[in-house]
Recover the amino acids of this structure.
């Protein structure tokens, strides 16, 4: 477990955050550009001095300004992958990979093995090259390998995909997924792209203007009003955590969320969907239909009973309806205010939520459900 | 092809220029690093002091060296008594005078490289466990190598032609401090020396041109190695 308390003033800007990151798994630091995410990374890595701070990894205290503890950046054993990769241009890929490993103090436990990293990140054919001969995606893979081989206790990923185009991001993302599921250290992932967070993180720390707005499981933070403003109206939607139950006879994935069962048309081909796997599904608010009774003769695959929690004004003439579908699982539905009036929606009203299987985007985690 | 006096002056010039560069580099790297990476009181004055040889008449630099490093000067006297080293009126003295004159050029060149270098790379090295000295030698120094090389070549080329400071501090002793420009000057002062002066000028010209071409070639090689 990583525990972080940081205060840093920079002119008018005040960063004041306090959060935890569990082991294993990815904790996403999410917020707009300029909200202080990268400052948090610099402070954690020890490249910037905090005004006040306490940072603990497990039992080890790295920084405690109250007790005048401040471990130098070079002794923190925190692996950092920067947005711009920062590979050393005068060294080969192999020398870059070995840079941190060669500087480990004698007797440091080295559970991360060179051959494993090279094969996991697909670097076999790249080792003799120089950084300028690599593509953007390859560079980030090498940077990730270099960080891992320094045997870190914590991995910080500072917008590692932000400088890549969409195709390159798709090329690198699976490596992060594999890493998340195989590594036993906390990973902090900074991003301003919510789809990356959705795909990689189980826990989210939401930042705005240097302040912590929300912290918790992705499913809980996905309903936070502040998140809606950051991601924009089109990306608003609840995230549900479920467990893969199997495939139906049409080849669609069956997922159990709380008491409800969902049919998901999972097109991401990266993982085998085996029963028991954990899955995060995002349901965009604009894709949810609210019905007063269970309809018949519709193409829609998913109809679940729900209880209205709240009806709030949304963009334009729409309202945002929060629906409880049991066992703390929640959906958000965006419908017109007129429709809401006609259905007589209000707290505790029982309704049906309808979602097309093809509207559901699921991201599988190989770690079994807790 | 060359007369003994000519080849003597040529070799001496090469030797003085090479030694001046060797003197220069460690100090120039240290000063450039101080000026780009640290903030201290009196930095502006220090910066101006480093650049003085650019604006002072070379004769003045030679004179100041004579005052400081002469056998009766505070530094020269100490060197003479403790180690038996004499700088004034020697070849080593000529190299020292040349080094002082070209020092600002070298500092400038290295400084530009240091300012242009991505400091994020040093941060990355730090997170990977490299200490300050380690970072300097494994990251900073290789990355500013093109600037060091450019500075060294400029200093070498300028050093071949240094006249005023050398003749003032080290005098014009054949075989000891009479470099190409000094030999050329001597030839001009001698009746019937015109032909010799012309030959010496031609040698200087060839040398300068060769130097520039070699520098360009080396810079290309280095840039290629660094992947730019």
């Amino acid at each position: 477990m990583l525990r972080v308390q940081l205060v840093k003033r920079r002119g008018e800007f005040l960063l004041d955050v306090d959060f935890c990151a569990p082991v294993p798994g990815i904790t996403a630091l999410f917020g707009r550009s300029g909200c202080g995410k990268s400052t948090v990374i610099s402070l954690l890595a020890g490249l910037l001095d905090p005004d006040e701070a306490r940072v603990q990894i497990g039992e080890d205290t790295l920084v405690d300004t109250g007790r005048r503890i401040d471990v130098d950046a070079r002794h923190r054993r925190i692996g950092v992958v920067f947005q711009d990769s920062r590979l050393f241009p005068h060294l080969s890929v192999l020398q870059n990979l070995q840079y941190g490993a060669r500087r480990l103090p004698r007797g440091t436990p080295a559970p991360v093995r060179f051959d494993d990293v090279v094969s996991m990140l697909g670097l076999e054919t790249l080792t003799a090259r120089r950084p300028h001969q690599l593509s953007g995606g390859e560079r980030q893979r090498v940077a990730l390998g270099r960080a891992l081989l320094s045997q870190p206790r914590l991995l910080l990923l500072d917008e590692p995909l932000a400088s890549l185009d969409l195709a390159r991001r798709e090329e690198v993302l699976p490596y992060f997924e594999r890493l998340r599921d195989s590594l036993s250290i906390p990973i902090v992932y900074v991003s301003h792209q919510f789809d990356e967070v959705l795909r990689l993180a189980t826990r989210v720390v939401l930042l705005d203007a240097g302040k912590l707005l929300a912290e918790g499981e992705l499913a809980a933070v996905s309903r936070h009003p502040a998140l809606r403003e950051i991601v924009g109206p089109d990306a608003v939607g609840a995230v549900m955590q479920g467990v893969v139950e199997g495939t139906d006879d049409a080849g669609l994935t069956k997922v159990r969320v709380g008491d409800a069962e969902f049919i998901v048309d999972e097109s991401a081909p990266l993982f085998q969907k085996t029963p028991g796997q954990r899955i995060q599904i995002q349901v965009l608010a604009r894709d949810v239909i609210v019905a007063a009774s269970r309809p018949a003769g519709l193409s829609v695959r998913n109809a679940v009973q729900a209880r209205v929690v709240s009806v709030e004004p949304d963009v334009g003439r729409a309202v945002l309806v929060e629906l409880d579908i049991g066992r703390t699982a929640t959906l958000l539905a965006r419908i017109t205010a007129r429709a809401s009036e006609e259905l007589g929606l209000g707290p505790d009203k029982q309704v049906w939520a309808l979602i097309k299987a093809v509207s559901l985007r699921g991201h599988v985690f190989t770690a079994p459900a807790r | 092809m060359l007369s003994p006096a000519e080849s003597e002056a040529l070799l001496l010039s090469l030797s003085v220029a090479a030694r001046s560069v060797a003197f220069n580099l460690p100090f120039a790297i240290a000063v450039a690093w101080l000026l780009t990476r640290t903030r201290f009181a009196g930095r502006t004055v220090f910066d101006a002091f480093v650049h003085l040889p650019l604006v002072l008449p070379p004769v003045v630099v030679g004179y100041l060296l004579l005052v400081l490093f002469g056998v009766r000067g505070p530094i020269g006297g100490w060197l003479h008594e403790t180690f038996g080293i004499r700088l004034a009126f020697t070849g080593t003295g000529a190299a020292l005078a040349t080094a002082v004159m070209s020092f600002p050029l070298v500092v400038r060149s290295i400084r530009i490289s240091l300012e242009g270098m991505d400091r994020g790379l040093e941060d990355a090295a730090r997170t990977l466990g490299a200490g300050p000295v380690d970072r300097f030698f494994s990251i900073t120094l290789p990355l500013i190598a093109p600037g060091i090389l450019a500075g060294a070549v400029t200093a070498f080329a300028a050093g071949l032609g240094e006249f005023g400071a050398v003749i003032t501090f080290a005098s014009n002793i054949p075989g000891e401090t009479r470099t190409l420009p000094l030999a050329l000057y001597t030839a001009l002062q001698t009746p019937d020396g015109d032909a010799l002066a012309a030959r010496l000028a031609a040698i200087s010209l060839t040398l300068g041109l060769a130097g520039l071409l070699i520098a360009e070639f080396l810079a290309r090689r280095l840039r290629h190695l660094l992947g730019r």
